[in-house]
Structures are given as structure tokens and as C-alpha cells.
Amino acid sequence: MKLYGGIDLHSNNSVIAIINEHGETLTAKRLNNDMSVILSYLFSVLIKTI
């Protein structure tokens, strides 16, 4: 399954959305602009889709 992601970067937070190849939103979440938080979230999404 192909996944696509987008990040809407703001000054103190980011909104991250992941969609599949059919354009269906799998997840969308607002996170603090902390690299470890963002990476942890992205890895958790990846693990759930495997």
C-alpha cells in the first residue's frame, strides 16, 4: 500500500496527515514542533499499516 503524507508547519505546532493511494485519510493529528514527537508519531503510523 502506498502512503502519502503532508505537514502543515506552524510556529509552535504541525498538523500531519497521512493518506493512502485511494485518497482516503488514514490519520490527521496536531503535534508540537518537537522532532522526537513527530518521528515517534510517524513510526507508530508506519507500524500500524504494515
Structural key phrases:
50 residues, alpha+beta, flat
Write up this protein.
The chain is an alpha+beta fold and 50 residues long. It has one domain. The chain is 30% helix and 46% strand. The chain is built from one helix and three strands; from the N terminus they run E-E-E-H. The protein has one helix spanning 35-49; strands spanning 3-9, 13-20, 25-32. Strands 1-2-3 form a three-stranded antiparallel β-sheet, covered by helices on one side. A hairpin with a 4-residue loop joins strand 2 and strand 3. It is flat. The model has no long low-confidence stretch (mean pLDDT 95).
Helix content: 25-40%
Q: What gross morphology would you assign? A: flat
Strand order in the sheet with the most strands: 1-2-3
- The number of helical elements comes to 1
Radius of gyration: 11 Å
Structural classification: alpha+beta
Distance between the termini: 9 Å
Mean pLDDT: 95
| Proportion of beta-strand residues | over 45%
Q: What is the count of distinct domains?
A: 1
Secondary-structure element order, as H and E?
EEEH
TL;DR?
With 50 residues, the chain is an alpha+beta fold. It has one helix at residues 35-49, and strands spanning 3-9, 13-20, 25-32. It has a 3-stranded antiparallel beta sheet with strand order 1-2-3, with helices on one face.
Helix and strand layout, with pairings?
Blueprint: E1 3-9, E2 13-20, E3 25-32, H1 35-49
Antiparallel strand pairs: 1-2, 2-3
